[in-house]
Every structure is written in structure tokens, then in C-alpha cells.
Design brief:
Blueprint (H helix, E strand, L loop, with lengths): L1 H19 L7 E3 L2 E7 L10 E9 L4 E8 L6 E5 L5 E6 L4 E5 L2 E7 L1 E9 L9 E13 L3 E13 L11 H8 L10 E7 L2 E7 L6 E6 L13 E4 L2 E7 L10 E9 L3 E9 L7 H18 L6 H12 L6 H31 L13 H18 L19 H18 L7 H8 L4 H24 L1 H5 L6 H26 L4 H22 L3 H21 L16 E2 L2 H9 L4 E6 L4 H11 L2 H9 L3 E6 L5 H9 L7 E5 L7 E2 L6 H9 L10
Parallel strand pairs: 19-21, 20-21
Antiparallel strand pairs: 1-2, 2-3, 3-9, 4-8, 5-10, 6-9, 7-8, 10-11, 12-13, 13-16, 14-17, 15-16, 17-18, 20-22, 22-23
Helix pairs in contact: 3-8, 3-9, 4-9, 4-11, 5-7, 5-9, 6-11, 6-12, 8-9, 12-13, 16-18
Length: 685
């Protein structure tokens, strides 16, 4: 009997100790803050949520940051380590306040921050009867200077079948809940984007005198500028000043709206942004920019050889009529137009399905690269005279006057479009980026203007007999020049193979080279004439092509960070961290298949004067390599209003807005941009 009494008392002691255990971690003291992990209840029930919080007590004059810290700073981060079956389902941020640090404006908290998280517990409990919760917290506490801090906080929370009792911190949880923005608001919202402002409009009574919007995304608005508020006939309007980094297309506007009247109220809002057609002036500018971009595209190294070959066809006309020349130019232009329409349609369909694709996306496919390599290799062998399939096949010679010649001209236009996609000309990037923010009809109209610009030089020649007369008479020089163009095409083949080498395994690349040898042998055999030889030639070409497309497409990207030397591999997190630290940052959005990118790197970014200036300014260099499909890079390009590479973005440091450099670079352009930076140069020690 005495033994049973002792056991009963021990059991009571265990139960009492279980329920009286402190439901908080020991406070951790760090520079200018004290932080601990606390719970709202003394215990939890299996299968029901429990709320815990990181509590920062902040020294007077110092502050922590909101999820969007504003012009500078960094939001607190929490890495939870929970028992199996436990999961954080929601984190509740209190409404922030603007914190002026002239000339900047940040968003954050002073004196105290209680960041509450809700944890869902599993239905089946543990035999241990408690849960060990760990939070690895990091933060940035700032006054005029900033000090990073971190702590690992542990909390042992007991399980209890009965209703949990409030903990000693329950009042703090109740108090902070009043600071959470309400998920319901009394207004119907609309968002309109006009020039340099976003208009957030509320339909309904405005029983307040001022308002302020804290966007969730820090890249949208100029935080340090005022947000003009005005009442309208049926509600109110808040004008939000756009940043240079405001994306070309935005689907939703989310954040916290604070209204100031008899009392301060806050509302969590998430408003869809209706697609709006651009103004007439914007549309006309985009159409003109597209035409100029297509025109300049003819001078790009990937397109110029094709244009030269087409111009040679005029010299070969001899006494042919102007009408035949016009028909040929119409066929060539038609090939370009149809190809651009197909490209625009494919992009629109794939993007509507959620794909992050842009200009030149097809060169991210090994299948397309192999097909283009085979086509250009065959053309180069044809130019060398290894085999003939009729002059009309390349759009050259007297066959231009026949129906077959017009078909050849059409496919020459298709080919010009195919080889143009690795290049981006001035004006073109902005026009294409704008095109995909507009309704489909405007997208097609801009791509049509781009195609007409590419076709323009050939059409001008067809319409101008005086210009055609300036061309030399047909002769042996045409054969010599044609063979010279064959070497240029072979150079293009080598370049495309080097691009393929960055997308597939080394063994696969060897299979492609082996197949190219087989195709070359087949074409040579075809040129020997004879029915039997041509049958064998067709078998060789077909078998080699099948071999290339089945054995040469095993992907393996070897574009690692270390291969770029002093350039770091781009990640959005690394760039954000560097920018928030006030560092100057230069981002090179590039791809191995982009000839313009490669030329810019060699003539502007890798010259000694520019490299030295980068070092003197302590600029962090990031290379965003888009050789292979990368949704993160595609999304970032779109945020700058672009759909393809090259793109060069320079963050001067401090609070200065990022600058977008021209698509064609010179050393002086880069040096001038770097010299404009007035931000203090941070130490890298």
C-alpha cells in the first residue's frame, strides 16, 4: 500500500513538471537585440495547430525589417527544424512602419517584433508526449550601420489531451494579432498602369485622409518617394511611383494597404492586374523599333552571309525582267514572314502553357541545333560544288526565273529567319519584350514589322533597277564568292557544334560528329551521279541523320560557376544579397549560341581597361547563362522587359536604381556607366 502511494506521488510529480515546464527558449543576447522562441500555449493537442513565435526585443534607435525591407536591409529568415509530421503552415507579419534613413526609406519594426508562425501537428502522437521545436533565425539589425545576427533557439512543447492552457506570453500573442493586416477590406480594387505610376483604386467610401501601400515585392516601387492620395467620385486613388525594375508584365499586385483616419487600419490585399493595351504612341514606337531591329539584323554575323547570297542572285539575273525579280523578292519576304509568324505563334502558345521562353528559345534544343548543323553543312558542301540539287535550291542562278526559283527564294527566307535567332539587334530586344505584354494581335503585328525589316534590303534592290545595275556582270567571280561563302557557313557549323557541346554529353557530341561525316560522305556520293550511287547516298544520309538525332541529344550541362573565372554564376539570391549590402553589381545575361553576346564579351567586357575598372570599383560580376533553358533567368529577363539575350544590367550600389546598357557594347560605353557610380566603394576585406 505504501509503495502504491509513493508511485502515485511520483506520477503526480511527473505530470506537474510536464505542465509547468517553461514553453520558451532561453533568451539569446546579440548586438542590440534579445531574441527567444516562445509559444502561445503551455502544451498542444495532436492533430491541432499550435502557434509559436520568434520574439526580438530591439534596443532603442535600432530596427529590424519587414518581408519587403524597402530601399535597403534584409528581412529576418527562419529555418525550422520540426519533428516528423509537423509543418509550418503560415507566418503572420505585423504591419510595418516606414523608417526614414535619408535619402532612403525602409520598412520595419522598432522596439519589438513578434513574428508568429502556425505549426500543424500530426494526428498520431508520439509516445514521448512532447515535441522538440528548433528555429535557426538570422536577421539584420540597423541604425545608420547594420549588424547581422543569428541564433539557434529550442523549445520543448508537451502534448496534452486536454485543452491547452494559455502560456505567460498569451497576452503578447493577442496584442500582436491586432497589428496583423485584415484579410478582408471594404473596397473593390482595380489596378491601372500609366507611364511612371501604378494607380491603385478603391471603389467605395474613403472615410480616411491618407493611405500608404507596402508592396510584397521590393523591386516594384520607389520607396523613398511619396504616394499621392486623392478621393474620386466613387472612391479613392493611390499613385505608386514605379521603379526602373518594374516588370514589363505583372499579373497581380499584392501587399499591405494602410489607411490613416480616426485610427490606423491595415488590410492584406492581392489584386489581379488586368491586361491593358498600350497607348498608340507606345505601339507605334514598338512597331518602328521592331522594323529597325530587323533591318539591323541583316548586318549581324549570323545573317549577313545569307543576305550576300541573295544579293548575288540579282547579279545572276542578266537580262531577266524586273517583274521576275519582284516575284523572287516577294517569295523571299514571304518565307521570312511565315517563319516569324510561326515563331511568334509557338512562343505565345508555349508561354500561355506556363513555359518561360524567349527569343532564340529553339537554340536551347539539341534537336534544333543538330538539324541546323546538318542543313548548313549540306549548304556549304553544295557551295563547294561537292553535289548539285539545282541552282534554285539556294536561290542562286538562272533558276530564279522559274517556279522552282521562287520556291528556293521562299526557303531562303525561312533559312534567314532560322540563322537570325541567335542574334539580337539594337531596338529589337525592347520591341520583342514589349510584344509579349500586349494582346496577341499586337504581338503578331510587332513580329511582322520585325520580319519586314529583315526582308527590306532585298525588297529595296528588287524595286530599284538603278541599284541592281551597280552590281557586276555575271562571271567566274560569282563561283569564287559562292565558294567563299561556303567557308563562312562551315565556320557557322563549327560555332553551332561548340554550342551543342555545352548542352550534351561528350560521348553524344562524338556521335553527332560521326553522323556529320556520314552525311558528308552521302552528299559526296550523290554528286558522283548514277542511280546506284544515289540510292547508297540516300541510305547513308538517312542512316547518319537518324544516328545524330537519336544518339546525339543526351543532355549534360557543364556550364559551372568555376568555368567563368572572375564571373560568379548568377542566382537571384546572390544578386539580391549583394545589392542589399550596397555592392555594385554587373549582370551579363548571355548564351553560348548568342553571337552578339560573344562579340560583346570579347570586344567590351574582357578588355584590360574594363576589367581594371571593374576591379577598381569593386563590382561583383554575375553571368546569367541561358545556353540551356532556365526558367529563373527567363523570368528575370521578362522582369526587365526583355525576351532574349544579350542583356546587361548594372546596379551602381547604394540606393541608385539599376541601369540597362545597350545591346551592342563598346569598352567606352561600359567605362562611362561605371564612372557614373557615386556609391561608396565597400571594402571586400
Amino acid at each position: 500500500m505504501q509503495f502504491q502511494t509513493v508511485r502515485f506521488l511520483l506520477s503526480l510529480l511527473v505530470v506537474f513538471s510536464l505542465f509547468s515546464a517553461p514553453v520558451f527558449s532561453e533568451p539569446v543576447t546579440a548586438p542590440h537585440v534579445e531574441v527567444q522562441l516562445v509559444a502561445a500555449q503551455e502544451s498542444f493537442q495532436w492533430g491541432k495547430p499550435v502557434r509559436v513565435a520568434i520574439r526580438w526585443q530591439i534596443e532603442n534607435g535600432w530596427h529590424l525589417y519587414w518581408r519587403n525591407p524597402g530601399d535597403s536591409g534584409e528581412a529576418p529568415k527562419i529555418n525550422w527544424k520540426l519533428p516528423d509530421g509537423f509543418a509550418v503552415t503560415q507566418t503572420f507579419w505585423p504591419t510595418p512602419r516606414p523608417i526614414a534613413v535619408p535619402p532612403l526609406r525602409n520598412y520595419g519594426f522598432e522596439k519589438e517584433l513578434l513574428l508568429v508562425s502556425e505549426i500543424q501537428t500530426p494526428a498520431a502522437g508520439s509516445a514521448l508526449g512532447s515535441a522538440s521545436i528548433t528555429a535557426e533565425a538570422s536577421w539584420l539589425v540597423c541604425q545608420e550601420s547594420c549588424i547581422p545576427g543569428s541564433a539557434t533557439l529550442n523549445l520543448e512543447l508537451p502534448a496534452n489531451e486536454a485543452s491547452p492552457q494559455p502560456s505567460q506570453y498569451a497576452d503578447a500573442f493577442t496584442a500582436v494579432q491586432a497589428q496583423w493586416p485584415s484579410p478582408q477590406s471594404p473596397w473593390q480594387f482595380a489596378v491601372k498602369i500609366e507611364d511612371d505610376f501604378v494607380h491603385l483604386e478603391g471603389k467605395g467610401p474613403a472615410q480616411f485622409e491618407d493611405a500608404y501601400f507596402f508592396a510584397n515585392d521590393r523591386v516594384l516601387f520607389r520607396h523613398a518617394e511619396d504616394q499621392p492620395f486623392e478621393k474620386t467620385d466613387d472612391g479613392w486613388r493611390l499613385k505608386l511611383p514605379k521603379k526602373n525594375t518594374f516588370p514589363a508584365k505583372i499579373d497581380r499586385l499584392a501587399g499591405v494597404l494602410v489607411v490613416e483616419g480616426k485610427q490606423r487600419e491595415a488590410f492584406e490585399i492581392d489584386v489581379p492586374v488586368a491586361a491593358t493595351a498600350a497607348g498608340l504612341s507606345q505601339s507605334l514606337y514598338a512597331i518602328l523599333a521592331a522594323f529597325l531591329g530587323g533591318l539591323i539584323l541583316n548586318l549581324m554575323p549570323c545573317v549577313f552571309p545569307i543576305l550576300c547570297l541573295k544579293v548575288l542572285s540579282f547579279a545572276s539575273l542578266g537580262g531577266s525582267t524586273r517583274k521576275k525579280a519582284l516575284v523572287s523578292s516577294a517569295a523571299y519576304s514571304g518565307g521570312i514572314l511565315v517563319s516569324f509568324w510561326a515563331l511568334a505563334g509557338t512562343l505565345m502558345v508555349l508561354r500561355a502553357g506556363g513555359e518561360q521562353l524567349g527569343w532564340g528559345f529553339q537554340l536551347q534544343s539539341p534537336y534544333f541545333l543538330i538539324g541546323l548543323v546538318v542543313l548548313l553543312l549540306a549548304m556549304s558542301l553544295n557551295f563547294f560544288g561537292t553535289f548539285e540539287v539545282g541552282g534554285s535550291w539556294t536561290g542562286l542562278g538562272q533558276g530564279l526565273a522559274s517556279q522552282e526559283g521562287n520556291v528556293g527564294s521562299f526557303f531562303s527566307g525561312v533559312l534567314a529567319t532560322l540563322v537570325a535567332t541567335p542574334c539580337t539587334a539594337p531596338f529589337m530586344g525592347t520591341a520583342v519584350g514589349f510584344a509579349f505584354t500586349q494582346p496577341p494581335y499586337m504581338t503578331l503585328l510587332i513580329f511582322t514589322s520585325l520580319a519586314l525589316g529583315l526582308a527590306a534590303p532585298y525588297v529595296v534592290l528588287a524595286l530599284s533597277p538603278a541599284l541592281v545595275k551597280l552590281l557586276p556582270r555575271p562571271g567566274q567571280w560569282m563561283v569564287t564568292l559562292k565558294q567563299g561563302m561556303g567557308f563562312l557557313l562551315l565556320l557557322t557549323v563549327l560555332w553551332l557544334v561548340s554550342v551543342l557541346a555545352l548542352q550534351v554529353q561528350l560521348a553524344s557530341l562524338f556521335q553527332v560528329l560521326l553522323a556529320l561525316l556520314g552525311i558528308s560522305f552521302g552528299l559526296w556520293l550523290w554528286g558522283l551521279n548514277g542511280t546506284k550511287k544515289r540510292i547508297v547516298a540516300v541510305l547513308f544520309i538517312a542512316a547518319s541523320s537518324y544516328w545524330a538525332f537519336t544518339r546525339g541529344v543526351h543532355r549534360e550541362s557543364r556550364m559551372e560557376a568555376g568555368e567563368h573565372g572572375r564571373w560568379e554564376k548568377y542566382t537571384e539570391e546572390a544578386v539580391d544579397k549583394a545589392v542589399h549590402e550596397g555592392r555594385a553589381v554587373f549582370i551579363d545575361f548571355t548564351a553560348a549560341w548568342c553571337i552578339t553576346c560573344q562579340v560583346n564579351e570579347q570586344v567590351a567586357l574582357e578588355v584590360d581597361s574594363v576589367k581594371k575598372k571593374f576591379e577598381d570599383k569593386k563590382v561583383r560580376l554575375f553571368k546569367a547563362d541561358w545556353t540551356n533553358q532556365d526558367a529563373q533567368i527567363a523570368k528575370k529577363l521578362e522582369s526587365y522587359g526583355r525576351q532574349g539575350v544579350p542583356l546587361y544590367v548594372f546596379y551602381p550600389g547604394g540606393s541608385q536604381a539599376p541601369r540597362i546598357l545597350p545591346q551592342i557594347l563598346t569598352p567606352q560605353i561600359v567605362l562611362d556607366e561605371l564612372d557614373k557610380s557615386t556609391a561608396p566603394l565597400p571594402s571586400t576585406d
